[in-house]
């Protein structure tokens, strides 16, 4: 195979760099798994990997036996996030840079490797702290707003853990419904084989769907947005049931709509976080209203028509965390407003209800009229 590859490359005038190529010879029959065989590419010898040595392939370490979690790549991504943070970009540009350059990088790496969740949690918490800082929110503020889409008033930054679950699910689904019959049959046979070993009898299609859903339920995502694998009897197809946005029913994604799966899952995740935030009792009603229309959130992606002062105020105001006496959630603190003596110093009172500020109302009124 290497000879054919070399031949084809020579026809096309390509030349491999043997220093960057590596080979791994695994022998399952002996105790020493990795053999030190040498392979040639275009007549030159490649590096041959030894046991526990690894090769970084598209950000994913490969080798035998190697823990596939790409810790180096995640550390590199976190370094980049820190550099974005210390740059002189405006806060909305920082969020945009994170979404444009680093999120696709993370999701690409997740596609290639079998991940452990612990390093991902660390990455999540670092990203969460920085995005809160960019949104000018206190660290104790609710985190849901980070994961909600721009259209509904959030920062549109995905949770890396969710991204990982989603990638695993879509990857499995794409393999099982691949248009190429060879790939599809290999994927299906291996799933059927695993289920047969687990239940020690020939599995039905329903068994396979239950098995795949079981593996989903262990993940947070499957449970949280309640999606699961289902065998569709009428169509004789395996599909994934995804909750529909804004209604209580579910929609089934099958072979014909395989390209839609990722989009539907993303929407379901955004919807889950939006509903979560709306349900929080001390949130006020602002978020419920502002998440309804795109027009209320037009400034989020590019910071259009927005000054830094507006940016620093608006996110805090929307989730009721402007530092006022009335916004303190716990304990029996004094919530009086010292200026006018009103019992509860809340944001609506200061902005719209307090007579002490009536001068500002008049200026506002006059400015509009003139
Ligand atoms: Zn007042």
Number of domains: 4
Oligomer: single chain
Mean pLDDT rating: 85
What is the C-alpha radius of gyration, as a whole number of Å?
27 Å
Major β-sheet strand ordering = 9-10-11
State the secondary-structure class: mainly alpha
Low-confidence stretches: none
Residues in helices, as a percent range: 40-55%
Element-level helix/strand string: HEEEEEEEEHHHHHHHHEEEHHHHH
Distance from N terminus to C terminus (CA atoms, Å) equals 80 Å
Describe the sheet with the most strands.
3 strands, antiparallel
Bound molecules: zinc ion
What general form does the structure show?
elongated
Strand percent estimate: 5-15%
Summarize the structure in words.
It is a single chain. The chain is mainly alpha-helical and 370 residues long. It has four domains: 2-53, no CATH class; 71-162, no CATH class; 169-270, no CATH class; 323-369, no CATH class. 48% of the residues lie in helices and 9% in strands. It has 14 helices and eleven strands. It has helices at 2-11, 71-86, 91-112, 117-134, 144-147, 160-176, 181-199, 205-218, 220-224, 261-279, 286-290, 308-318, 347-353, 358-369; strands at 22-23, 25-26, 34-35, 40-41, 44-45, 47-48, 55-57, 60-62, 228-232, 237-243, 250-253. Strand 10 and strand 11 form a beta hairpin. Helix 2 (71-86) packs parallel to helix 4. It starts with a helix and ends with a helix. The relative contact order is 0.07. Residues 337, 340, 342, 349, 354, 356 line the site of zinc ion (ZN). Residues 337, 340, 342, 349, 354, 356 line the site of zinc ion.
């Amino acid at each position: 195979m290497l000879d054919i590859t070399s031949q084809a490359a020579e026809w096309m005038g390509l030349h491999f760099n043997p220093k960057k190529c590596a080979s791994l010879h695994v022998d399952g029959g002996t105790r020493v798994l990795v053999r030190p065989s040498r392979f040639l590419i275009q007549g030159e010898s490649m590096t041959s990997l030894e046991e526990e040595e690894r090769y970084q392939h598209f950000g994913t370490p490969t080798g035998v036996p190697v823990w596939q979690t790409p810790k180096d790549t995640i550390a590199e991504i976190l370094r980049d996030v820190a550099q974005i943070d210390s740059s002189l970009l405006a806060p909305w540009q920082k969020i945009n840079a994170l979404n444009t350059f680093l999120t696709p990088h993370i999701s690409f790496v997740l596609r290639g490797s079998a991940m452990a969740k612990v390093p991902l949690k660390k990455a999540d918490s670092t990203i969460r702290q920085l995005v809160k800082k960019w949104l000018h929110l206190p660290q104790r503020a609710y985190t849901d707003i980070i994961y909600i889409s721009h259209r509904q008033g959030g920062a549109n930054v995905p949770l890396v853990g969710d991204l990982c679950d989603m990638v695993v699910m879509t990857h499995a689904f794409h393999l099982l419904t691949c248009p190429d019959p060879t790939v599809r049959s290999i994927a299906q046979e291996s799933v059927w084989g695993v289920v047969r070993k687990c239940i020690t009898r020939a599995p039905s299609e329903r068994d396979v769907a239950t098995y795949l859903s079981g593996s989903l339920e262990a993940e947070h995502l499957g449970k949280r947005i309640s999606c699961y694998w289902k065998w569709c009897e009428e169509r004789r197809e395996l599909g994934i049931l995804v909750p529909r946005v804004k209604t209580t029913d579910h929609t089934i994604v099958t072979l014909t709509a395989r390209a839609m799966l990722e989009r539907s899952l993303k929407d379901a995740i955004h919807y889950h976080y939006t509903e979560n935030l709306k349900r929080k009792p001390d949130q006020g009603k602002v978020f419920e209203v502002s998440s309804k229309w795109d027009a209320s959130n037009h400034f989020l992606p590019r910071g259009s028509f927005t000054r830094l002062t507006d940016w620093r105020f608006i996110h805090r105001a929307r989730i009721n965390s402007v530092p006022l006496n009335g916004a303190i959630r716990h304990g029996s603190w004094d919530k009086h407003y010292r200026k006018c003596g009103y019992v509860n110093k809340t944001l609506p009172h200061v902005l719209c209800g307090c007579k002490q500020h009536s001068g500002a109302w008049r200026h506002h009124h006059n400015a509009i009229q003139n």
